[in-house]
Write a structure and sequence with these properties.
This protein is mostly helical. Among the domains are: 2-201, Potassium Channel Kv1.1, Chain A; 393-546, no CATH class. 54% of the residues lie in helices and 5% in strands. The protein has 24 helices and 8 strands. The strands form 2 sheets. Strands 1-5-3-4-2 form a 5-stranded mixed sheet. A hairpin with a 5-residue loop joins strand 6 (243-246) and strand 7 (252-255). Helix 1 (43-49) packs across helix 2 (51-57), helix 14 (283-295) crosses helix 15 and helix 19 (380-417) runs antiparallel to helix 21 (462-486). The longest helix is centred in the C-terminal third of the chain and has 38 residues, at 380-417. It starts with a strand and ends in a 6-residue tail after the last helix.
């Protein structure tokens, strides 16, 4: 914001009058917007509405050679923002706000110029409409730092359920999440899932418990307090540095021009030794990039946030050797901490391919209700896309479990229809290693007690045993499918329950206790059917997940 005479400014472009009601000849000041629209206003009205303008207008004005020219104040906001703002300041009918792109700039401008009444008026209007468009009001509260308005809107959505949030996003458009972080969106979702309480009605809200950050085994590289300290660890003193690298914020590194020319020729192609090179990096990222140059790639950081920033720089500059090494390291870390990798990748815009790799790794763990500190800097929209991807994968996987249960019933019917074999069945094909928890799942499942501990009664026929086998394996498959669909189990996990069942049935102990020799052929068919169901299910689950697309 600056004051200047009303002669044409900002190049040769000629300002445009704003039109009524801000074009009256009785005015004594011109507000010129960033898109060169002139608003003729009254100084005393602006001075009453804004202490900032009140102080500025008390300063001595430049003497004009032509007395009929009005003083001009150039402002950073566009004409639409100032038109809304002036309507709030003047005693006239107020305009309604229905779009984020209209509302947020006006509130931020009113906050900037300390216009207390317009801010209060807009907050009251927002709260009055919070029950109709709570997500709209919540986003405005977040982006304009109106904490009480944000909480008020969250309370209006409290206990309504996540499907209702999805409906609001569909109605408002997913672009409404722009400018909000994944952490803020996470806490909103947690609030929505919590049922209404009397404490919220009277404002006695329990402070939100801090979520501990995700602990990993990676030790971040410490950030040096000054450029000299961080460079002294790996930049040699002999020969002396002959180039200055200046980062964002004015921090500088004294480096060797030859090193930059070897590793980043695009940075120094127009400079010579002794010059200063300006780079679009923060000091921490520049430190990691230089460390890679001077150590020939032996020391890449294991901190995902810092590594993602380095990889982003290497992709943009471009720095092919650094990009290749950083991506390989990033992929390894993404396999261990996929949620953090995805969030940092979205924050630094590492590209759709890497985001999909990280998202695929997240499927091995539950996502809903899981918090990590990486959310506090990642975009909310990317996090929402990941949640949507998880839900779509869960639905696809649950359908495969249902199909496997039906296939198991068909396999049992075929086993019962086959003639019995007297000879013992051959040993089954080697099955994958069975985790201990899978065996525990089998014994905890609704399988008949006779097949686990004691010899069945003499009156029990193999057909009845097969019928019971149908019950317990179908129950296992349906249980796992339901858990995936409800989000209590990760969408992807090795299919071990059916393999465990097959291994137990094929064991000599099971054969001796549960099956008469005359019906050993049925057992062989049963074992084969279990193995086929398990092998087919795993392949189909992987295929179903591969068919789901992550939006980026």
């Amino acid at each position: 914001m600056s004051a200047n005479p009303s002669s044409p400014s900002q190049g040769s472009r000629v300002p445009t009058p704003s039109g009524p009601p801000f074009d009256k000849p009785s005015t004594n000041l011109i507000i010129r917007s960033s898109d060169l629209v002139d608003f003729r206003v009254h100084q005393h009205i602006l001075a009453e509405a804004s202490p900032v303008f009140a102080d500025m207008l008390t300063l001595p004005q430049p003497r004009e050679q032509e007395r009929d020219l009005l003083p001009v104040v150039d402002v950073a906001e566009d004409a639409q923002t100032w038109r809304y703002l002036l309507f709030l300041c003047y005693p006239t009918n107020k305009q309604n706000f229905s779009k984020l792109e209209d509302t947020i700039p006006v509130i931020k401008a009113a906050q900037k110029y300390e216009m207390e009444w317009p801010v209060t008026y807009m907050i009251d209007k927002l709260r009055a409409g919070a029950h109709l468009r709570p997500l709209f009001v919540w986003v405005i509260g977040v982006r304009c730092h109106l904490e009480q308005t944000q909480q008020y809107a969250a309370a209006a959505m409290r206990g309504t359920g996540l499907p209702n949030l999805e409906s609001m996003l569909q109605s408002e458009g997913f672009g409404i999440l722009e400018g909000t972080t994944a952490g803020q969106y996470f806490h909103l979702r947690q609030d929505i899932k919590v049922k209404f309480s009397i404490d919220w009605l009277f404002g006695q809200r329990t402070p939100r418990q801090a979520h501990p950050p995700v602990q990993t085994n990676q030790t971040p590289v410490p950030f040096s307090a000054s450029p000299t300290d961080c460079a002294s660890n790996f930049i040699p003193d002999d020969p002396p540095a002959d180039c200055t690298l200046q980062c964002l914020g004015g921090a500088v590194f004294h480096v060797h021009h030859l090193i930059l020319k070897l590793h980043a020729p695009s940075l120094v192609k127009t400079t010579a030794p002794g010059s200063t090179v300006h780079i679009d990096m923060d000091p921490g990222t520049a430190e990691e990039v230089l460390r890679f140059f001077y150590t020939c790639g032996d020391a890449l950081t294991a901190d995902l946030a810092r590594l993602s920033a380095v990889l982003s720089v290497a992709q943009r500059t471009p720095l092919p050797s650094l990009a290749k090494a950083a991506e390989a390291c990033w992929r390894r870390l993404a396999a261990a901490t996929p949620l953090d990798a995805y969030l940092h990748g979205a924050r630094y815009k590492l590209g759709a391919n890497l985001l999909r790799i990280a998202a695929r790794h997240t499927l091995s763990k539950r996502l809903e209700g899981v918090y990590t500190s990486a959310m506090d800097a990642a975009p909310a929209r990317a996090y929402h896309h990941l949640l949507t991807y998880h839900a779509a994968c869960a639905r696809a996987v649950a359908a495969k479990y249902t199909l496997a249960a039906a296939r198991w019933r068909e396999a049992l019917a075929a086993v019962l229809a086959a003639p019995s074999a007297v000879a013992r069945p051959p040993a089954p094909a080697p099955a994958p290693t069975i985790p201990a928890d899978s065996i525990a799942d089998f014994y905890a499942s609704p399988a008949p007690q006779a097949t686990r501990t004691a010899r069945p009664p003499a009156t029990r026929t193999p057909e009845s045993v097969l019928k019971t086998a149908e019950t317990w394996l179908c129950a296992l498959l349906e249980r796992d499918g339901k858990a995936v669909a409800e989000g209590t189990r990760a969408p992807w996990a090795p299919v071990a329950s059916a393999y465990a069942a097959g291994a137990l049935l094929a064991s000599p102990e099971a054969q001796a206790q549960a099956w008469p020799p005359a019906r050993a052929g049925h057992l062989a068919g049963l074992v084969r059917a279990v193995g086929e169901v398990a092998a087919t299910l795993q392949t189909e689950i992987d295929g179903a997940i591969d068919g789901v697309t992550l939006e980026v």
